[in-house]
Amino acid sequence: MDKESKILIVGLGMIGASYAEKLHGLGFFVGGLSARQSTIDKAIESNIIDCGSIDVTKEFVSRFDIVVFALYPKKFIEWISLYQDCLKSGALVTDVTGVKSAIVYRIQGMLRSDVEFIAAHPMAGRELQGIDNRCAEVFDGANYIITPTPANTTKAIDTAAEIGRLLGFGHISVLSPEEHDEMIAFLSQLTHCIAVSLMCCKESRHLVDYTGDSFRDLTRIANINENMWPELFAMNKEQLLAQMNLFEKEFGRLKNAIAADDIDTVKEMMITSTERRKLFNKK
Amino acid sequence: MDKESKILIVGLGMIGASYAEKLHGLGFFVGGLSARQSTIDKAIESNIIDCGSIDVTKEFVSRFDIVVFALYPKKFIEWISLYQDCLKSGALVTDVTGVKSAIVYRIQGMLRSDVEFIAAHPMAGRELQGIDNRCAEVFDGANYIITPTPANTTKAIDTAAEIGRLLGFGHISVLSPEEHDEMIAFLSQLTHCIAVSLMCCKESRHLVDYTGDSFRDLTRIANINENMWPELFAMNKEQLLAQMNLFEKEFGRLKNAIAADDIDTVKEMMITSTERRKLFNKK
To answer: Going by DSSP bridges, is the β-strand pair B51-53/A171-174 parallel, antiparallel, or unpaired?
Structure first.
């Protein structure tokens, strides 16, 4: 990857548009594909892409050396199935999808042999959607995970890492798709399930005047894109259910200890919790 | 309550010391009681109290018109039982305790008839403890709840509200002790139980490099004072268990929907969640 590499972002939602803004700001030639003309118009007016299109044509797509898919998982698979002939020979394809096992092998299995797919997951985002909520700084210092398979070349892995560094990520790591999915089921999907469940417990309008920060913190992510997340959950169902069971077990253990006035267990869980949480303080 | 009112803070932990700093900064004469001389020394050096003592004597305590207890619940009850004779006749006693039914009636039942106890709960705090972590601004814009009983005078309720305003709270409300406890069981105690359970799920050292903000947000309060919280849980056990059961039910509903590929239910819960969460965005 060099300064001359042309980068296409497919999907200009919050993440795609943030990628575009950051990479264009660094001087790269950046193109955009979107389903909506108004999004392309906005991206050009905002000077975050050099050119854009709502039509997927070989003429447009084959100009790009690197193609980043920032689509919902099913749309990503559909795009590859319908339009992969438009990709330039030798192009590198990457993505931002939040689940990996269900995506990586499938895309690699479908893709032409002269195009390589290296999967990546930027662990950053906002609970707000769309191009208007883009933020080139949202990746600063965040974690970026590359999930190669044996089919990937070292060069592709290096390029994915370079994209991560250019975007501003603070920590770039490599995991297998399976390791990624177990980890994401726990750290991200389970936490979203908890936040959603908490908000579903009761009509809470009258509670706004009484709340402290803890409820606000725990439910920030309860503002959730109901079109994207069920798809991600379904694509990582087995792992997510395993992590939900694990959480239910620990929550039940704490509940039983409280019910039985077993202060020792409650204290012990709090000490473990405090000890482990310290590691997550931002450096 | 006038500018001449002398205020005693009993317990100079994070909350007590923050009260002292704010009220002293506003020009009130503020005294402090602490179990440790080093804390009193620090409070005087830091210019957040005018005088302090580690000994509870009538001579010291009877100088004050308003006495704010910022102790753990059991210590608060113990103090009243041992030292209430030291209080000035006509003094107003208030507190910062996080549970109310188990405290308010008990203290009011014990207290001399020439001293009035009006309970209050500042819904603000930090996950850090002690005088060194005091912060006079931690109350700015936060919620402050007064929980009177039929035994309280309007004058005492008004004074408690005035203390809340002076401290900087943005919203001051009045609830019965029972309403307070149900609300706090849901908004605060349940959320702490969730955060603790989540951290207890697995040894998570290796996950630090992969986490996004959602796990950090959900577990900020997992850094928890294991000496105070079990006491608060035990004193509000019935309500807390009811809220834990409610949460388990909703979490189980979501889990079953995911397991059954029931996308409609998952979506419906996410829409409810997003809708309700909007009300909690800070104004």
So the answer is: unpaired
Provide the angle, in degrees to the nearest 10, between the axes of the packed helices B190-200 and A237-259: 120
- Nearest CB to B125: which of A171, A203, A212? A212
Angle subtended by helix axes B263-278 and B237-259, to nearest 10: 140
Question: For the residues B17-37, what does the mean pLDDT come to?
Answer: 97
Reported as a pLDDT band with limits 50, 70 and 90, residue A4 is very high
Residues in chain A closer than 8 A to B193 (CB atoms):
251, 254-255, 258
Q: What is the pTM of this model?
A: 0.86
User: Which residues in chain B are contacts of A225 at CB distance < 8 A?
Assistant: 270
Domain B179-278 in the same topology as domain B6-175: no
Structure-token match 């999808």, residue found: A97
Q: Which CATH number fits domain A6-175: 3.30.450.150, 3.40.50.150, 3.40.50.720, 3.30.1330.60?
A: 3.40.50.720
Quickly list DSSP for B167-189.
HT-SEEEE--HHHHHHHHIIIII
A246: chain B residues, CB-CB within 8 Å: 201-202
How close, in Å, is residue B183 to chain A by CA atoms? Answer: 7
Kindly list the domain boundaries of chain B, sorted by start residue.
6-175, 179-278
Over residues A145-154, the pLDDT tens digits come to 999 999 999 9
A282 pLDDT band (50/70/90 cuts)? low
Q: CB-based contact (8 Å) between B283 and chain A? A: no
Q: Is B222 on the interface with A (CB under 8 A)?
A: yes
Percentage of residues in chain B with pLDDT exceeding 70? 99
| Nearest by Cα to A52 from A63, A64, A41, A68 | A41
Q: Do B125 and A252 make contact, defined as CB atoms within 8 angstroms?
A: no
Q: Are B194 and A251 a contacting pair at CB < 8 A?
A: yes
Instruction: Count, in order, helices (H) and strands (E) of chain B.
Output: 12, 9
CB contact A54 to B (< 8 Å): no
Q: Which pLDDT band holds residue B283 (cuts at 50, 70, 90)?
A: very low
- Chain B residue numbers with beta carbons less than 8 Å from the beta carbon of A208 are 279-280
Q: What is the CATH number of domain A179-278?
A: 1.10.3660.10
